[in-house]
Amino acid sequence: MDILLMGPPGAGKGTQGALLSESMGLPTFATGNLLRDAVSRGTPLGLQARAVMEAGKLVSDEIILGVIRDELDRPAAAGGVIFDGVVRTIPQAEGMERLLADRGRKLNAVLFFDVPDAEIIGRIERRRGIEGRPDDDPAAVATRLQSYRDQTAPVLAWYESRGSLIRIPAVGPVDDIATRVRRALALQGT
Length: 190
Ligand code: ADP
What we know:
This protein is an alpha/beta fold. It has a single domain, classed as Rossmann fold. About 60% of the residues lie in helices and about 15% in strands. It contains 8 helices and 5 strands; from the N terminus they run E-H-E-H-H-H-E-H-E-H-H-E-H. Helix 2 crosses helix 3 and helix 4 runs parallel beside helix 5. It is globular. The model has no long low-confidence stretch (mean pLDDT about 95). The structure holds adenosine-5'-diphosphate. The site of adenosine-5'-diphosphate has 19 residues, from helix 2 and helix 3.
């Protein structure tokens, strides 16, 4: 079972992804976490991605498709993966579809966590106070929201046209949102 989580920065994909991972027994894979870890360890990937990430821009499709391929080749990923924020451009969506198809797989569901902009900005400000992520400073957040609108929002329409997009209203208590996710997945037999 392969599930993709989408939504703007701060939409709660990480929180809901962890809950889903537990209930479905699948690993989660978040490109943001993988890249942040590479930056903090100073690996070649981290050195390549660092400046782009700190500016709030998107790293190249080539890099992302490479890390998705590596993830899919891990034995622990053989039974499916919860992909968190992994697809942010149309070429990434197309590339991911090919990588999965090569392994006889496809995305079983794409969940879109829908949160209004004003709420997003408040959530990221609070997170900055707690986690101190370098790309949570106000200028980088504005760029990330812009990248999301320009490059990632069109990906939602791409999935919608393929009938795999499920919209989850994602404001309110974490448990309520988790219930909506479980219901939505059960409704479509996932
Ligand atoms: P957010 O969703 O809050 O922007 P993430 O932790 O998911 O934060 O990602 C942090 C950064 O990692 C992004 O701003 C971007 O630079 C990079 N990144 C993560 N996933 C991708 C992707 N699929 N394509 C391009 N860049 C990505």
